[in-house]
């Protein structure tokens, strides 16, 4: 980014350099030759790019947004310069996380429990009416121990979709039925639901996806603490990675087409702010959600289409809102009193938490399917109005609630049906690695957890990309 800006100012200052810039523009059709072309500069794509760069491989990252980072978003308050993370707030407490942050010169710290909000002082409200409910959350301790005992039955799940063959019936039971079968998990269900935000209707999802997202690491870190960046500004990872990768990142760029018919290389045509570019790479890494409508222009074969076509997804929305009328230290948690474990009926607001920035609340919203952004925003505002009527939002404010940030994490949580899981979907999916010089990473191949994505990429994808044969 810095060098890009510098170039523009030089071009304006020195007419003879403008010529150089124009020549570069005319060369827009020139072929970019790289070892690896990476589609998507989110958590997995950026990690792969940094590691490949450090291993002496040439890379190019194609990213549609104007920054790297995907689900990781940090808001910096212009008045106080304080930051708050929404989206990715904490990381598993693992050496690989410390090593990666260290590589990028980013200090880390153990995340204080308050970073994730505390239930102790929370007000529980009905997700549909905003009415206060007299509710005491159960002590999740015994339930988490029972849940951890279930997790221990599937030690390979944590590192990927490495499923026993045949796939155990328990893994494809809707999670609600799984809990009914192992009722000693019950007291942990609200906790599992909250740490598994984005799963949509958690009790209806195949148990596999719950066990993947709310992993042994997560259960452990609930008690020992997570890691976060020392400044509580997780987007630093992506700012530093962008500075490191420099011109090897094409921002605001989209794939127009791919051609993977050659034996030893792939061709990718990319629409970039400086025109269409052709990339010729030995290998292609697809690090965006592998949904068919994200892969328009890709030369998918029947097998790839059949697999990716099975994914369905949820919607997860994060936002920062001011003028809520809520007292500054109040946490609001949604429930539905008539539901099992009183989990809130979605779509709806999961929770509202104060941030370090006075007057700014972090509001999370979940849906079993994706919804239009404006609809979600309208629902959040309507919920805040209900909280005024029900007397939860007591502060006098003449101003209407206002979004300071809003991010749709869509498509979120790619899943397939229980039948597909049982008939070997994930074996077939993983068998795609390396076919047609194409490799894959991202949450559909692992789960929505930065550490687990980095660790999967490190051990199961990088060795394939580094292998020159
Ligand atoms: C804001 O904080 C960052 C560190 O998080 C610091 O680098 C920057 O200089 C600060 N900006 C101002 C205007 O104080
Ligand atoms: C809330 O419920 C608890 C336990 O059921 C009860 O002791 C308490 O009085 C109730 N509080 C209100 C305000 O209704
Ligand atoms: C929970 O119940 C299962 C049987 O349903 C049992 O095997 C397990 O030991 C129990 N776990 C705990 C932590 O109580
Ligand atoms: C990281 O992945 C490797 C390979 O799958 C695995 O052996 C290791 O246990 C993983 N590390 C953690 C902490 O999950
Ligand atoms: C591709 O590789 C196969 C096996 O190595 C070889 O027989 C074939 O001629 C190659 N095709 C092209 C177009 O290079
Ligand atoms: C880029 O390629 C697309 C598809 O071939 C084409 O429609 C578009 O006009 C091209 N853009 C430029 C700036 O050449
Ligand atoms: C929240 O702030 C109000 C007013 O400053 C105070 O009376 C109340 O005790 C605080 N509540 C909590 C849970 O800290």
TrEMBL record:
Record keywords, A-Z: Signal
Pfam families: NAD_binding_8
Recorded GO MF terms: oxidoreductase activity
Superkingdom to which the source organism belongs: Eukaryota
Signal peptide per UniProt: 1-23
Cited InterPro entries: FAD/NAD-bd_sf, Flavin_MAO
Translocase as UniProt keyword: no
Protein name: FAD dependent oxidoreductase family protein
Species per Swiss-Prot/TrEMBL record: Rasamsonia emersonii (strain ATCC 16479 / CBS 393.64 / IMI 116815)
């Amino acid at each position: 980014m810095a060098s890009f800006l510098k170039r523009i100012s030089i071009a304006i200052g020195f007419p003879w350099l403008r010529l150089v810039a124009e020549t570069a523009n005319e060369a827009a059709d020139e072929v970019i030759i790289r070892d690896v072309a990476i589609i998507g500069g989110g958590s997995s794509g950026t990690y792969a790019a940094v590691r490949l760069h450090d291993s002496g491989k040439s890379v190019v990252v194609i990213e549609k947004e104007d920054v790297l980072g995907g689900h990781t978003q940090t808001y910096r308050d212009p008045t106080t310069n304080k930051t708050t993370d929404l989206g990715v707030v904490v990381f598993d407490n693992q050496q690989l996380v410390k090593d990666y942050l260290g590589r990028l010169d980013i200090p880390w710290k153990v995340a204080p429990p308050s970073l994730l909000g505390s239930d102790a002082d929370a007000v529980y409200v009905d997700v549909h009416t905003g009415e206060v409910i007299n509710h005491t959350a159960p002590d999740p301790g015994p339930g988490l121990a029972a849940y951890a005992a279930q997790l221990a039955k599937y030690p390979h799940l944590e590192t990927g979709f490495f499923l026993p063959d045949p796939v155990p019936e328990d893994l494809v039971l809707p999670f609600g039925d799984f809990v009914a079968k192992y009722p000693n998990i019950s007291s942990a269900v609200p906790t599992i639901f909250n740490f598994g935000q984005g799963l949509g209707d958690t009790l209806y999802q195949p148990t596999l996806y719950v066990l993947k997202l709310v992993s042994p690491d997560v259960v452990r870190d609930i008690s020992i603490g997570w890691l976060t960046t020392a400044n509580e500004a997780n987007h630093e990872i992506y700012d530093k990675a962008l500075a490191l990768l420099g011109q090897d990142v094409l921002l605001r760029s989209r794939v127009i087409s791919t051609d993977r018919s050659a034996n030893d290389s792939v061709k990718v045509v990319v629409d970039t702010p400086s025109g269409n570019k052709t990339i010729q790479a030995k290998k292609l890494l697809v690090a965006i959600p592998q949904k068919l409508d994200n892969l328009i222009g890709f030369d998918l074969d029947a097998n790839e289409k059949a697999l990716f076509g099975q994914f369905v997804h949820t919607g997860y929305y994060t936002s920062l809102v001011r003028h809520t009328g809520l007292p500054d230290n109040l946490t609001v948690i949604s429930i539905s009193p008539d539901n099992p474990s009183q989990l809130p009926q979605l779509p709806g607001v999961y929770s509202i938490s104060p941030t370090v920035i006075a007057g700014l609340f972090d509001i999370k919203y979940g849906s079993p399917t994706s919804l239009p952004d404006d609809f979600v925003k309208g629902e959040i505002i309507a919920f805040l109005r209900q909280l005024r009527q029900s007397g939860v939002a007591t502060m006098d404010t003449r101003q209407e609630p206002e979004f300071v940030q809003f991010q749709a994490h869509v498509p979120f949580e790619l899943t397939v049906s229980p039948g597909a899981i049982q008939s070997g979907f994930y074996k077939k999916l993983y068998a795609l690695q390396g076919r047609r010089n194409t490799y894959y990473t991202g949450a559909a191949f692992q789960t929505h957890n930065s550490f687990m994505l980095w660790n999967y990429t490190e051990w199961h994808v990088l060795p394939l990309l580094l292998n020159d044969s």
